[in-house]
Amino acid sequence: MCGIIGYTGPREPVGVVLEALSRLEYRGYDSSGIAFFRDKGEVAVARASGKLSRLVEALEGISGLAGSAIGHIRWATHGAPTEENAHPHRSGPIVLVHNGIIENEKELRLDLEEEGFTFTSETDTEVLAHLVLKAFLESGNLTDAVRKGLEKVEGSYAIAVMCEARPGELVAVRKGAPLVLGEAGGEFFIASDVPAFLKWTRKVMPLPPEVVATISPSGLTLQGSKDGRTVSPRFEEVPWDPVQAEKGAFRHYMEKEIFEGPRAIMDTLEGRLGEDNTRVFLPELVRLGPNPPEIVFVACGTSYHAALLGRRMIESLSPVSVHVEISSEFRYRPLRYRKGAWVIGISQSGETADTLGALDLARREGFLTIGMTNVAGSSITRDTEAVLLTRAGPEIGVASTKAFMAQVTLVWLIALYLGRRESREVKESLSGLVRAPARLEGFLGSFDSDAISLMARKILDSRFVIFIGRGLDYPLAIEGALKLKEITYRPADGYPGGELKHGPIALVEPGVLVIAPLIDPDLRPKELSNIREIEARGGTVLTIGPARASKEFSPSFPLPDCIGWEGVFSASSVLQLLAYHAANLAGTDVDQPRNLAKSVTVE
Ligand code: AGP
Predict the structure, then answer these.
(1) Which CATH class is domain 3-244?
(2) How far is the CA of 334 from the centre of ligand 1 (A)?
(3) Measured from the CB, is residue 601 less than 6 Å from ligand 1?
(4) Does 9 contact ligand 1 (Cβ within 6 A)?
(5) What is the pTM for the complete model shown?
(6) In CATH, what number does 247-444 get?
(7) What is the pLDDT of residues 70-96, one digit of tens each?
(8) Does residue 562 carry a catalytic annotation?
(9) Residues 69, 36: contact at Cβ < 8 Å?
(10) How confident is the model over 238-286, as pLDDT tens digits?
(11) In the 3-class helix/strand/coil scheme, how is 14-34 assigned residue by residue?
(12) Identical topology for domains 247-444 and 447-594
């Protein structure tokens, strides 16, 4: 995980790097650090353990010389989150930041120690600093030193390197970890992700793997790290609005992003429906040929929950059978799917190591792979046969909200695409999807936040919160539980309603809260009988469902009446807001919950 940033240009660099790091905090926040030229030929390094605010405090009133600077925000893998282990790491004049994991770190460290290098941290990164120095002492050329220094390194890395002897120069390279370049009229940025420099430029180029980027006062050059071939830079303008990456009037990114749900759905639909909204266009899939016999979704966390909804939707509207697999489990199993199956990896970030690994395995086994992601240019887009982009805009809060809405939109579109256009089910379902964003917007606009706060209070009063659901409500239940756990740290779990009797119902007693989304019209009677079973054992049940869906119950939190699947969006928003309000009441760090990081780029 971790986030890295590099800058060279005429601006005062400390302010630029600290601001860019604040946009990368979602990638990790155990410690942070910066290197910049304080005087010609003297690189100053400042590091702090804990949140970025501690580094900002430490640097108050300090500025650097225009030229190059690098910064890092860490999610600890090798070594505790102490100041010594914080990046940048230094070896003589070489100073660098790194995101990734060096797999042969131990043996490289032993070799270097034998050669007389001393280590001051427990990180794998320090090995890289010494290796680059060793090569730099031989050639005196920073680009060559990076190429040569990394020759024996195994694992994944994205690094940005500067050198005391070369102010204004910055060298970067990546393998298996993301890195993007930004250009703004002669000044350059290097970052783990675009939002880091979106404030200054939208001209972006993903750095291809194993290509060394050298930025010097004379501009940018790109060179193959193995063969030295010249690569031409190709920058493209990203459509992201810098304001999308700001908090605005909201207290947290998560809250803002929940309210951006309708926009995420609308933007994801944009250009994918015919003029009269009666057809679905997914040219990315047309290129793959006829419908596959099977689809296999691979994903983690919230993206996995979107895939579960996708399975239900695709199997309802088309004859294609669907499997949904957790990426980290899929990677280590024989793949016995039908010939011609599509393997679709869903990943907001496009950088989740397990999902990339799962897709890589599927490709090697001869399946067609498709990457569904929110980040154009991310690793998943480079390694798959087709790419489907969700268009939620930058998602900063660690808890995924609007990206989930966009993922559900896209899997729903896939279901419609695979279904028979003339069928009544497809037609009705499509019109439900078309009206979904406006209806969600209306719902969120007239939202009863008092009712949510009341429910949030009940959540905090409960020892354990159980989420249940059947059919479409099951993925919502486990997503609701995940959201609650990750930002409130309260024990919560989601179960299929029918499974309760097979064990989890033993947890039910007075004082235990059960939350039940009830938007699946087909299974509602069965869900209601599960609720009665819980109430009979003293559990308190909060239901989230359409106001007039059934004569037998009135939901604790009523949703607008809906036909079909639109309720998925409103119920998800309620579950997201419930977790959000409960976290606020609990006083946790909503946007940066403990131990988590936005992109899980390690296995
Ligand atoms: C969601 O709230 C989580 N933070 C997490 O489960 C996330 O969905 C998961 O890590 C997958 O990330 P990806 O979509 O970027 O692959």
Answers:
(1) alpha beta
(2) 25
(3) no
(4) no
(5) 0.74
(6) 3.40.50.10490
(7) 999 987 777 788 888 899 999 999 999
(8) no
(9) yes
(10) 877 666 667 777 889 999 999 999 999 999 999 999 877 889 999 999 9
(11) HHHHHHHHHHHHHHCCCEEEE
(12) yes
